[in-house]
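Sharing a chain and its predicted structure for anyone who wants a worked example. Both blocks are below, sequence first, tokens second.
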Amino acid sequence: FPLLVTIILLVCAPGSTTSPSKALGSDFDPYAILEISREGATDEIVKKAYRRLALLHHPDRNKGDEEASQERFLRVSEAYDTLKDVSSRRAYA
């Protein structure tokens, strides 16, 4: 877990040319991660999906499987960060 966070922080550091999604894998599909449709994905739908999945996968709520839970939580957070902005959402549409 600390290694994963360190890698993401280093790759996503200011001045880095690698995007956070590339740090998390090339199969990054924010719509699939948030379990929403590409068509009609409004700010409200994106936010609701993020909140639901963030609560479900939060490491504090999954005490027996904290490492895997942390990875899932980071992917959900990255997907939300990508889709919360309308202009970046268009890039993945």
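Comments welcome. The chain is about 65% helix and 0% strand.
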